[in-house]
Amino acid sequence: MSEKINWILELDEISKEVKESFKELDKETIYRKPDNKNWSIAENLEHIMKVNNSYFPIFRKLKEGTFHGAFISKIGFFSKLFGNLIYKSVSDGGKKKVKTFSLWEPKIQDENSEIVEKFLSHQEELKGWIKEMEMFINKGEIIHSPANSLIVYSLPRALDIIVAHEKRHLDQARRNLRI
Which domains are present in the chain? Predict the structure, then answer.
């Protein structure tokens, strides 16, 4: 089974879990912050979408042939190092809290929006991008983090990071149901 199919299957599983866990909840529960240090369910979903959306311009540039990687991307050691470090930090099951970059801070504008539906639609868009990136995935294209162009890693590792990051925040959001 190809990596592309695995990512898509994992995203489908995350979407299913979001639907099953949060679709029937009232807005008060979805938008309730457990405390000042933790995000609400809605903020977790918003954060995931913000992070993923920040990759889309890079994907678009790859597709259009206009992407130019940082000079550091030509040194394979760095792309492996950064990719592995970031992947490890997001796939640790949430054991270690990590402060997010300000561009990825969730900012809920409308508490009446259907955040779960918005998230599920977003997942379909992400899966579409993964399908469109197949040629670049197979080449192991090196990209940079949307937050910092000197943090480089392969496109396949970026997709690993995206999926692991979604799982991390899905777990965080589900913990809100136990509070």
Answer: 3-178 (1.20.120.450)
